[in-house]
Amino acid sequence: MTEAARAPIGRDRRPFMRRFAIAAEPYLYSAPALILIAAVMLVPLVIGISYAFRNVILLDPFSGGFVGLEHFREMAKDKAFWLALRNTVSWTGWSVLLQFVFGLILALLLDQPFKGRGLAQALCFLPWAVPSFLSGLNWAWMFNPVIGPIPHWLYGLGILPAPDNILADPKLAMWGPIVANVWWGIPFFAITLLAALQAIPRDLYEAAAIDGATPFQRFRSITLPFLAPTIAITVMLRTVWIANFADLIVVMTNGGPADRTQIIASYIFTQAFRRLDFGYASAIAMVLLALLLVYSLLIVLLRQTLLKEA
Amino acid sequence: MMRPKRLGFTILHRAAILAYIAFALFPLFWLLKVSITPNDLLYGEGVRMWPSRSTFDHYVFVLEHSDFPLFFRNSLIVSLSTAFIVTALASIAGYALSRFAFRGKFWIVGLMLLTQMFPLVMLIAPIFKILSPLGLTNSLTGLIIVYVAFNVPFATFLMQSFFDGIPKDLEEAAMIDGATRFKAFRQIILPLTLPGIAATLGFVFTAAWSELLFALMLISGVDASTFPVGLLSFVSKFSVDFGQMMAAGVLALIPACLFFFFIQRYLVQGLTAGAVKG
């Protein structure tokens, strides 16, 4: 590119150093963040990927040899892995769906002006401030019939045949962490969706109301199209976070009973920390990473199409 | 004609809000309730909404006979340092993403999105092996470095969206008057973004305060333990003493909630600023 083409209007008469400083500015601003991300996330990621093809067992000085695709062959035969994959789908699917639906309802409720909205908003968003491990412990205690009320309520409503701990019931255990996760994650959706709602120009609604549109019609043809890009990106980020999110399960059930709440992320944790088998754990993590990348790519493409239509 | 319908809507709206507030607060109320229930009443009055007698014994025990004050201090150091460093880095990086079109921007954004997808468990072993020869395992500094890197990408996106909400004309006017871009950024744009900065500080503080897996892996001694690690070891050691566990839980909750209440009104301001702009 020639000098004349680069300069916005006529020839740029500023000294070279000054022009260089201006061109370098965005890189200087983003450099500290990028260097840190590269050093603490990318370099370890590459090392971690190499572990997937090596026999890496912590505290074993004779490990570290190259094993090729051995871990992946082992995984294909590993029944616990396939169960964990199915559990990951139901854990992530239900958590995201319920968080999103209730988050959207909450955002719509808080978007209406009313007296005391500031306080109501602060209280509604409070669960998000609770540390995740603590909300896991808290819900585990609530599900415990010795000190928690929930089993007794469910028994009183006739949902449970006896006031037992659902975390110990293989058929129901997964609902424990899901409920804790939904309680904890609704505010995140509500905050982002509320921000998007408040950015919708109000005169659109007024115009629609004058034209005689019902509230439902207004929601469908104004609110939803405006929210769609935000919804796509939040659902994508949230799905990926929840699929990777082992804290609640590790704290509440540790994958039990009988692996019925074991998701891939907690299975990786088990392999890495109990058996110290970092090679196999990294191989599983790679499969999870690949699945999440494919999923995110699909959502990004969907978002692009939505933006083009809008 | 409209009146009864409007009234019905208002009642339904307030009832829904109250129902959600009850759902949001009940688990925290229960935590508080068990933490002040004397041991002899714990099992007999298990599902009562409020115990017939209350006591602060569990709190006294936790504060005097355990290492919790130390864990508390460690967590505070780690979370505050992480929050401030991340917000500083994310402000300048978010500003670059918001204001400049430059070569490689697409890849930088892509890279930051990618980091949101890592199964973090995959990074634990390599990070442990990198930090160990540097003497950064079992140290609060090592923990802060790791937390800063993990939180920078999301915080950058957050700050970028706040900068996007401020008109470009402001710093362009200042630059025409002869200020450098960095001076315009520091003196004009940053003060306008204060609500966004407060919101980012809050996001990062809570994230660092609740991180468990890396703290478990990188810290082995009591001296550098953070609150989550301490509480978890407490739970496995005194697993039947529900009163004491919940008292410790309430104590772990206090700073996060205080910080949240402090920043949440800035969060609201940030949200409404977006509305005014629209």
Automatic annotation (TrEMBL), chain A:
One of its GO terms (cellular component) is plasma membrane. One of its GO terms (biological process) is transmembrane transport. PROSITE patterns: ABC_TM1. SUPFAM superfamilies: MetI-like. It is found in: Cell membrane. It comes from the Bacteria. It is a multi-pass membrane protein. It holds the Pfam family BPD_transp_1. Residues 85-299 form the ABC transmembrane type-1 domain. InterPro entries: MetI-like (IPR000515), MetI-like_sf (IPR035906). The chain crosses the membrane at residues 27-53, 91-110, 122-141, 182-201, 222-243, 278-302. Keywords: Cell membrane, Membrane, Sugar transport, Transmembrane, Transmembrane helix, Transport. Its main location: membrane. Belongs to the binding-protein-dependent transport system permease family. This is Multiple sugar transport system permease protein. It comes from Kaistia hirudinis.
Automatic annotation (TrEMBL), chain B:
The chain crosses the membrane at residues 12-32, 76-97, 106-128, 140-163, 184-206, 212-235, 247-268. InterPro entries: BP-dep_ABC_trans_perm (IPR050901), MetI-like (IPR000515), MetI-like_sf (IPR035906). This is Multiple sugar transport system permease protein. Residues 72-263 form the ABC transmembrane type-1 domain. It comes from the Bacteria. GO terms for biological process: transmembrane transport. It is found in: Cell membrane. It is a multi-pass membrane protein.
